[in-house]
Amino acid sequence: MPLNNSVKEAAVAIPVIRVPELPQWPVLSPAEQKQLKEEIKAMLHRQNAVLVAHYYTDGALQDLAEETGGCVADSLEMARFGTEHPATTLVVAGVRFMGETSKILNNEKRVLMPDLAATCSLDEGCPPELFSAYCDEHPDYTVVVYANTSAEVKARSDWVVTSGIALPIVRHLAQAGEKVLWAPDRHLGQYVQKLTGAEMIYWPGSCIVHERFRAEALAEMRARHPQAAVLVHPESPEEVVALADVVGSTTALIQAVVTMPNPEFIVATDAGIMHKMQQLAPGKRLIEAPTLGEGATCQSCARCPWMGMNSLQNLAEVLRTGSNEIFVSPDLARKAAIPIRRMLDFARTLRK
Ligand code: 13P
Ligand code: SF4
Question: Which of 29, 120, 185, 321 has its CA 20 to 30 A from that of 148?
Fold first, then answer.
C-alpha cells in the first residue's frame, strides 16, 4: 500500500526482525496461582518494590499490579507512575523499552523485568547507528521518536512521544513551524501527519502485531455487526485506521468501551487489552478484529509475542533472585531523559 505523498519515508534497510513463538506458560491451578500471587505480594512488600504493568500483559499480572498498589496502564502513564511512586524498586511487566524508560527516569532506583528478551519490533527495527546517521542527514528537522525505541535512539531525539500524546506534540511543533523527523512507526507517523498537517519525513518501521489487521475482513465484520463500534490503535495500517470509529492509545480505546453506548466493540489491538475492557464494562461484547492469520497459523496476530513473555512465574523468579535488572549508564540516561521529560512536562500542561 503506497504511503501518503506529503510524508517522505527514509530509504533505509530495516533489519530483519526475528519474531519469537508466542510463549506458552504452564497453566496454574487456582490454588497454585493464589499461592504464587501471595509469594509475589510478600516479596514486593519486603523489597519496597512496586509492579507496573502494561494493558497487553497477562490478566493475572494486571490484577496483581492493581491489588498491590502498582498500576496497569499505557506506556505514557507507566513512565509517569514510576517517577511519582516512592518505591525503590520498579518491576516493569511489559517490553524492554518500558523498563528502560523507567530506568532512564529513575536512575537511582532498581528496575527489574520478568524477561529482558521481551523487545518490540519497532525498537528492533530502529538501530541507533543507522538512525543517528539519518538524523545527521537532516539537521534542519526536529527529531520526534516514539517511546518504543532504545535509550540510544531516545538520546538522539528532541522529543519522545507515546501514542497517547503524539498528536498534540506534533501539532504544537507544526504550529511553531518546525519540520518533523519521525521514527520509527510508519503507520503512526502517517496518521499523525494526516491529522496535524506537519511537514514530516519518517522511518519505515512497523509493529508486527498491528500491521496484520486486515481492512477488507474488518469491513465485512463490521457489516455483520451493525451495532458495533470499531476501535483501532494507530500503529495499524492506514486502511484499517480509516474504518475506525475511535483511533487512540490503549487508554483511549478502553475509555471508549466504557463511555460509548454501543453494545459491541470490534477491537483492533493486542487482545490483552480486553481484560481491562471487560472488567470496566462487563455488559459489553468485545470482538477481536480479523488478522492475516485468520484460518491459518499466526504467531503475532493480535498477540504480541514479546508482551507474552511476562508471566506470574518469571515475575516471581526475578523477585526471588534479583536477576533481570535493567542498566542504563548515567550519561546515556541523562541524555535520554531530556526528551522524555519534555513529553511528561507537555502532558502536565494538557492536564491543567
Ligand atoms: P500505548 O502507549 O498505547 O500503551 O501502546 C504501546 C504499544 O506498544 C502499543 O503496541
Ligand atoms: Fe511493540 Fe507491537 Fe508489541 Fe507494542 S504490540 S510492544 S508496538 S511489537
Answer: 321
Which of 210, 209, 201, 211 shows the shortest CA–CA distance to 144? 201
Tens of pLDDT, residue by residue, the chain (352 residues): 444 555 688 999 899 999 998 889 999 999 999 999 999 999 999 999 999 999 999 999 999 999 999 999 999 899 899 999 999 999 999 999 999 999 999 999 999 999 999 999 999 999 999 999 999 999 999 999 999 999 999 999 999 999 999 999 999 999 999 999 999 999 999 999 999 999 999 999 999 999 999 999 999 999 999 999 999 999 999 999 999 999 999 999 999 999 999 999 999 999 999 999 999 999 999 999 999 765 545 555 799 999 999 999 999 999 999 999 999 999 999 999 999 999 999 999 997 7
CA angle 113, 76, 15 (to 5 degrees): 65
Strand partners, 92: 52
The pairing of strands 142-146 and 159-161 is parallel
> If we measure between CA atoms, which residue out of 198, 86, 218, 84 comes closest to residue 144?
198
Residues with CB under 6 A from ligand 2: 95, 120-122, 148, 207-209, 235, 270, 304, 306-307
**What secondary structure does DSSP assign to 138-186, as a single string?**
-TTSEEEEESSS-HHHHHT-SEEE-TTTHHHHHHHHHHTT--EEEESBH
Ligand 1, CB within 6 Å, residue ranges: 74-76, 148, 162-164, 207, 233, 235, 249-250
What the block records as the C-alpha cell of 344 is 511528561
Proximal ligand: closest to the CA of 205:
2
Q: Say how far apart CA 212 and CA 184 lie, in whole Å.
A: 17
DSSP assignments along 88-155, one per residue: SEEEEES-HHHHHHHHHHTTTSEEE-S-TT---HHHHTS-HHHHHHHHHH-TTSEEEEESSS-HHHHH
In the reported structure, the alpha carbon of residue 207 is separated from the centroid of ligand 2 by a whole-number distance in angstroms of: 5
The bound ligand whose nearest atom lies closest to the alpha carbon of 20 is: 2
Distance 32 CA to ligand 1 centre (A): 31
